[in-house]
Amino acid sequence: MISYVILAITFLYVVIQISLYAARQRKPLTRDDIEERLLATLNGGDHGRP
Amino acid sequence: MAVHKKKPVTFRPFKAPRYAFDNLRICRRCGRYTALREEHCTGCGKSSLVPVEQHAVSIAGRKIHTRLLLTLFLTLASVYFGTSLQQMVLCGAGGLVLMGLLYYTQRKTRKNENLRSLDQLLGHNIGILKQGLEFNRQEAVSVLRENDVLAYEKLRELSVLLRGDRIARQRVALLHGFLLRKDMELELEQLLLKDFEPLLAEYIGEVAKVRRDLIKDRTLRYVKTYEVQILQMDKGSAILAGVAGAAVRMKRYALLYSGFIGRYVQDLPKDRVLRLSRMIAANPHEPWNGLDQTVAEIVSTKYRWDPDFQVDA
Predict the structure, then answer these.
(1) What is the top-level taxon of the source organism (chain A) (predicted)?
(2) Which residue of B97, B217, B226, B297 is most buried, as measured by CB atoms within 10 A?
(3) Count of C-beta atoms within a 10 Å radius of residue B160
(4) For residue B3, what pLDDT is reported?
């Protein structure tokens, strides 16, 4: 019985992990997004000058 | 007044990276960030600097392996606690199928997970990152007296990430001491400041002489905004004439800044007036905003007998 309980926990764990991966894949990050965020944080959201 | 002698210099080749974080490295030992090219970490002295992206990929890889190992551990535990052979086989097979599914998903989403890991790494460590870049800036400033070229090169590398006026102002001040040449890797748009800076105006004037192609929209807007202040400078009108001459390079700029060019057209060298007059002759129906008349007057007073202008007439 314990072995089935552990298998069920494994199943749940894998399902949660796969759902998380799939959810993140639906909104994929790009290098441009990361660069934009980094520059905005480093330069106080001020990219350009007049 | 002391005459400031400009120094002929050669810069190391510099190629701006595609992404600002491409040159950013992190020390695997102490976690300090650097945007400079040093071989050893300035924090711990070890040669354990790795590109941030590589570091993020290894973090993502570790997470993936941990999740797989946890699944394997749970599978083994379920097999271990099985009371019959059938139960053990069932649990083992079920666990292996689950592991296979997880592994397949991880492989499919690996690229995105690597980028997420990079985003998290930079986001969570932003304070340490800022601190590292500040150390880099101080390092550049500290070598300023002994080696101003090296200081400039370091600031140039930092400016990929730090785009504020502080670094730009320091770079402009250093560039003021160098003799600019056509073959140098010069920048202009990246050095434009929010407010008026005479050294920057001088630099723009120098660039207009050696690299007209660097005078673009933002520079023209800057010069137009601070035209009055530049005119009050020693060689202010020469700077403005140089910039107006560079703007004649493209029809778009000539049309957009026709008023500005018109104010300095009498100071333009012959080749620039010739180019402008040919441009106007080729596009007579464009809205020149009076520039066509000003050029016609200049041509008739200064170049009436010039054979180059006779051809156009």
Answers:
(1) Bacteria
(2) B226
(3) 19
(4) 53
